[in-house]
Design brief:
The structure holds two protein chains of two kinds. By secondary structure, chain A is an all-alpha fold. Chain A has two domains: about 50 residues; about 250 residues, MetI-like (MetI-like fold), CATH 1.10.3720. Chain A is built from 13 helices and two strands; from the N terminus they run H-E-E-H-H-H-H-H-H-H-H-H-H-H-H. A two-stranded antiparallel ribbon of chain A has the order 1-2. The N and C termini of chain A lie far apart (about 90 Å). By secondary structure, chain B is an all-alpha fold. Chain B has two domains: about 110 residues, no CATH class; about 150 residues, MetI-like fold (Orthogonal Bundle), CATH 1.10.3720.10. Helices cover about 65% and strands about 0% of the residues of chain B. Chain B is built from twelve helices and no strands. Chain B is globular and about 75 Å long. The two termini of chain B are about 20 Å apart. The chains are: A mainly alpha, B mainly alpha.
Chain lengths: ~325, ~300
C-alpha cells in the first residue's frame, strides 16, 4: 500500500509525458490534414479518375462506363479539329508570350530607375491584371470588330485597309494574344523588376568602367543576371498560355471558335466535347493529351530558353 | 486545384526584396536617374493600361448607334441608363452574380489562407515523417492544369446534385497547392526556429506555439495570399462556367451571358463590363500596393 502514491505519481507523470510526446508527434499531421483531405478529394482524385474515364465509353445517364482501351485517344488524334485547335493554341501562345516577355523586360528595365512616385508607376503597370479575362475579352473583341471596331477605324484613317479580325486566322490570333498581353505584361514586368533590383550595382559600375555602353550593359549584365527569373516567367506563361480558354471563348457570341474554327483552342475543344457533345470519356482523353502537351512543351521550352539566354550572354562577350 | 497562371511566383529568397543600397553615389554613366525616355515609355504603358477602360466608358455611355458613327472622344450621357438596363435585365441576374462573387471569393480566400498557413507552418518548422515527399507532391501538382480534373469533378458534383450551386465552385477553391508552397517558403525564411523552441521550453503546447508564434509571423504573407486568392477566384471563369447556370452565376459567368443577350448593342455590353469591373478596381486602389510588393517579393530568384 505504501508504494501506491509513488506509483501513482510516476504513472501520472508518464501519462503527461506521453501526452506531450503525442502532441509533438501528431500535431504536424493534424495541421496538414485539413489541406490534404480537401486536396485528395478535389485535387488528386479527379486527376486519377480522369485517366480511368478516358479509357471508358462513358454513359451519362448511368454515370458509369465501359472499358474501350485507348479508342478515345486514337479518335482524338485522328480528328481534324484537334489538330486545328493544337495549331491555334500554339499560334496564340507564341503571339502572346514572345512579345510579352520582350516588352515586360523592357518595362522592368525602365521601372528599375530611381523613379519619382515609383509605387504609382508599378501600380499603373499592374492595373490590367485585376480585370477578369472575360471582361478584357469583351472590350477587346469590340475594339477588334471587323466592321466598326476601333482598330479598323484607325487603320482606315491612316489610309490602310481594314483587317478581318474575326474572319482571318492570324489576325484573330493576334487579337486574342493582345488580350493576354494586356493582362499579363505588367505582372511579368514586376517579377522581372524584382530580379533586376537584386543585381549588385557594382556589376554595372565595373562594366561601365570597362567601357561597356548602356545597351551592352543591358545584354551582358542585366539579362544574364535575371536568367533564372526569365526562365521561370517563360515556364509559367507556357503552362498558362497552353490552357487558354476565357479569351477565345468570349471572342464572339457563339463561343465556338469561329466559323472555320479559326480560334478554337485545345481547352475550348475539351469543353465542346465534354459539355457540347456530352462525351465525357473523350473529353477526359483530351484533358490527358493537353496535360502531356503542356509537360512536353514546358520541358522543351526550359531547355531552349536556358540555351538561348546563355547564348545572349556569351554573344555579348563575343 | 491550383491555377498556376494567376498566382504570384514562388518565394525563394528573402521576403524583403532587397534593393541593394547604392554604396557610392555613382558616376553619371551608371546612375539610374530616369530621363525623358523612361518617363515617356512608362507613360505610354500607362495609357495602354487605362485606355480599354476609357474606351468601354466611351461606348458604354453612348447608345446603340454610337459604335456606327464617326469616332468621337467625348463620352455620351447614357452610362447610368445603360447600367440600369443591365442591372434590371432578369436574364443577367446582376445582384445575384455580384453577391455570389463576393461569397465565393471571400470563402475561398479565407479558407485557402487558414489551411495553407497551418500546413505551411507544419512543413516549414515541424519535423515529421514523410514531410519531404508530401511537400514535393504538393509542389508537383502546382503545374497540373485545372482541365485535367474538370471531367471527374463535374461527374462528382452531378452525383451529389451540386451542379448549379455555389458549393460546387467553393469546395474545389478551398485550397491551392500554391498557397501551401507560398506559406512554407515564407515561414522557412522569416520565422526563426529558436522562437518556436523558446515557446516550447516555456511549456506551450504545439497549438499554442502555433497560435502565439507561428501565426503572427505568417501574417504578412497570409494577407498577400488572401489578396491573390481573392482576385483569382473573382476572375475565375472556366469551372464556374461549366458547373453554374444562368440562374445562379458568378460575375464572369453573368458577363458571358451579357454578350449572348445584347450582341447587337455594345453600349449595353460594355456598360455591363464596366459595372462588373468597378468592384475590383476599387479593391485595387486600396490594396494595389500590397499586390505589387507581393508579386515582387515572391519573384526574386524565382
Amino acid at each position: 500500500m505504501t508504494t501506491t502514491p509513488v506509483r501513482r505519481e510516476t504513472r501520472s507523470l508518464t501519462a503527461r509525458q506521453r501526452l506531450g510526446r503525442l502532441d509533438v508527434k501528431l500535431s504536424p499531421y493534424l495541421y496538414i490534414a485539413p489541406f490534404f483531405i480537401v486536396f485528395g478529394i478535389v485535387g488528386i482524385f479527379p486527376i486519377l479518375y480522369t485517366a480511368y474515364i478516358s479509357l471508358q465509353d462513358w454513359d451519362l445517364v448511368r454515370n458509369t462506363g465501359e472499358y474501350i482501351g485507348f479508342e478515345h485517344f486514337t479518335w482524338v488524334l485522328q480528328d481534324r479539329e484537334f489538330w486545328i485547335a493544337l495549331r491555334n493554341t500554339f499560334s496564340i501562345f507564341l503571339l502572346s508570350s514572345v512579345p510579352q516577355i520582350l516588352v515586360a523586360t523592357f518595362i522592368a528595365y525602365q521601372l528599375d530607375h530611381n523613379l519619382r512616385a515609383k509605387t504609382f508607376w508599378r501600380m499603373g503597370v499592374l492595373l490590367p491584371y485585376v480585370v477578369a479575362p472575360v471582361a478584357v475579352a469583351l472590350i477587346f473583341s469590340n475594339m477588334f470588330g471587323d466592321k466598326y471596331g476601333l482598330v479598323n477605324t484607325v487603320l482606315n484613317d491612316l489610309g490602310l485597309n481594314s483587317i478581318l479580325w474575326h474572319t482571318d486566322v492570324i489576325p484573330s490570333h493576334i487579337a486574342i494574344a493582345t488580350m493576354v498581353n494586356f493582362r499579363w505584361t505588367g505582372y511579368n514586368a514586376l517579377i522581372l523588376l524584382a530580379a533586376m533590383q537584386a543585381i549588385p550595382r557594382d556589376l554595372y559600375e565595373a562594366a561601365a568602367i570597362d567601357g561597356a555602353s548602356s545597351l551592352r550593359r543591358f545584354f551582358s549584365v542585366t539579362v544574364p543576371q535575371i536568367r533564372p527569373t526569365l526562365i521561370f516567367v517563360i515556364l509559367t506563361s507556357t503552362i498558362g498560355g497552353l490552357q487558354i480558354f476565357d479569351e477565345p471563348r468570349m471572342y464572339d457570341q457563339t463561343g465556338t471558335g469561329g466559323a472555320n474554327k479559326q480560334w478554337l483552342t485545345l481547352t475550348m475543344y475539351l469543353y465542346n466535347t465534354g459539355w457540347g457533345k456530352f462525351d465525357f470519356g473523350r473529353a477526359a482523353a483530351i484533358a490527358w493529351i493537353l496535360f502531356l502537351i503542356i509537360v512536353a512543351f514546358s520541358l522543351i521550352n526550359f531547355f531552349i530558353t536556358r540555351r538561348l539566354v546563355a547564348d545572349d550572354a556569351s554573344g555579348g562577350k563575343r | 486545384m491550383s491555377t498556376a497562371t494567376t498566382t504570384p511566383t514562388p518565394v525563394t529568397a528573402e521576403p524583403h526584396a532587397p534593393a541593394p543600397k547604392r554604396r557610392f553615389r555613382s558616376t553619371a554613366i551608371t546612375s539610374r536617374r530616369p530621363g525623358w525616355f523612361t518617363y515617356g515609355s512608362l507613360g505610354i504603358v500607362l495609357v495602354a493600361a487605362i485606355f480599354p477602360f476609357y474606351w468601354s466608358f466611351l461606348i458604354g455611355s453612348g447608345d446603340q448607334s454610337t459604335i456606327y458613327r464617326d469616332l468621337t472622344w467625348i463620352p455620351g450621357g447614357n452610362f447610368l441608363a445603360n447600367a440600369a438596363t443591365v442591372i434590371d435585365n432578369p436574364a443577367i441576374n446582376f445582384w445575384k452574380a455580384l453577391s455570389n462573387s463576393v461569397i465565393v471569393s471571400t470563402t475561398t480566400a479565407v479558407s485557402t489562407v487558414v489551411l495553407s498557413t497551418l500546413a505551411g507552418y507544419a512543413f516549414a518548422k515541424l519535423r515529421f515523417k514523410g514531410s519531404g515527399p508530401l511537400l514535393v507532391a504538393v509542389i508537383a501538382t502546382m503545374a497540373v492544369p485545372v482541365q485535367l480534373g474538370v471531367v471527374p469533378l463535374y461527374i462528382l458534383m452531378q452525383e451529389y446534385g451540386w451542379t448549379g450551386h455555389l458549393g460546387a465552385v467553393i469546395v474545389p477553391g478551398l485550397i491551392t497547392a500554391f498557397g501551401v508552397f507560398w506559406m512554407t517558403q515564407y515561414l522557412q525564411q522569416s520565422l526563426p526556429t529558436e522562437l518556436i523552441e523558446a515557446a516550447r521550453v516555456d511549456g506551450c503546447s504545439m497549438i499554442r506555439t502555433f497560435w502565439h508564434v507561428g501565426l503572427p509571423a505568417a501574417r504578412p504573407a497570409a494577407s498577400m495570399l488572401f489578396l491573390f486568392t481573392f482576385v483569382t477566384s473573382w476572375n475565375n471563369f472556366f469551372w464556374p462556367f461549366i458547373v453554374l447556370d444562368q440562374q445562379n452565376p458568378t460575375l464572369p459567368v453573368a458577363l458571358s451571358l451579357l454578350q449572348a443577350n445584347y450582341f447587337v448593342d455594345y453600349s449595353l455590353v460594355l456598360a455591363g463590363v464596366l459595372l462588373a469591373t468597378v468592384p475590383l478596381i476599387l479593391l485595387f486602389i486600396f490594396t494595389g500596393r500590397q499586390l505589387v510588393s507581393g508579386i515582387m517579393q515572391g519573384a526574386v530568384k524565382g
